[in-house]
Amino acid sequence: MVTAERPEDLVLLQVGSDGLVDLNALEQVFVTRSGGVVSLMGANNETGVLTDLRVVAKAVREAGALIHTDATQIVGRLPVDVAELDVDLLSLSAHKFGGPQGVGALYVRRGTPLPHRPLLVGGGQERGWRAGTLNVAGIIGLGAAADAARRNLGEEAERVAALRDRLERLLTLALPDCRLNGRRDQRLPGVTSITFPGVPADAVLAAMPDVAASEGSACASGAPTPSHVLLAMGLSREAADSTIRFSLGYATTDAEIEHAAQAVVRAVTQVRSSLAEADGPR
Known about the structure:
The chain is of the alpha/beta class. The chain folds into 2 domains: 7-151, 3-Layer(aba) Sandwich (Aspartate Aminotransferase, domain 2), CATH 3.40.640; 153-279, Aspartate Aminotransferase, domain 1, CATH 3.90.1150. It has helices spanning 23-32, 53-62, 82-85, 136-151, 153-174, 201-206, 228-232, 237-241, 254-279; strands at 37-41, 66-70, 89-93, 104-108, 179-180, 191-195, 243-247. Helix 5 (153-174) runs parallel beside helix 9. It is globular. It starts with 22 loop residues before the first helix and ends with a helix.
């Protein structure tokens, strides 16, 4: 979601069942509007689906608008080249690739015509964009973490993707009716969203306390409503409520994948059995 100065200035773009932005919907927006900023997630934090930023950027530029991407989920997991992506603005967060929490960065393409509206006023730091003493330790930590992540980025991405694929394979073999959400050939290596039909996700998570997973993104943890991401992709409320997000990273091991798969299968089976007993003859 995007923060806008006025609600009427905000247009939410639709996505398809694969989780990708509907380019036709984007082009229709520019039929009646010009300029502005199109802000897209480089990768969705629930499904891992990667936005084809180069294709979107072409349409945005033809309409005379700017393009921003939230690359928080990508940086440190996949190679990022701002020139290749052709974006005007890119934001990222250090904690996603081993850096300190609470530190981020904003890339602004040289010459980008942004109106000057400081986040905090009162000083000339950050070239007038944000007043306040610079967080030197945080900045250095972000840079050091980025450098460390860059050294084995390709190998690590392949390793984590293989673990993700193994988890999905084990679960789909043991639970044939489970469904993977989002486009599978265009996604992050370490995120998978899986629907277990008819089984409330919160009950499954409660039945496997030694496995860290979530009903949606960490940003929406504890939200009482189903994932707006899954609903936008066309899932029913019941299906969205039966979906669990698994996130893998540099610390994930083969043994943990095996353990997690077994725990999920046990938990889903246990919850289904309990639900069947509750719905049985009385």
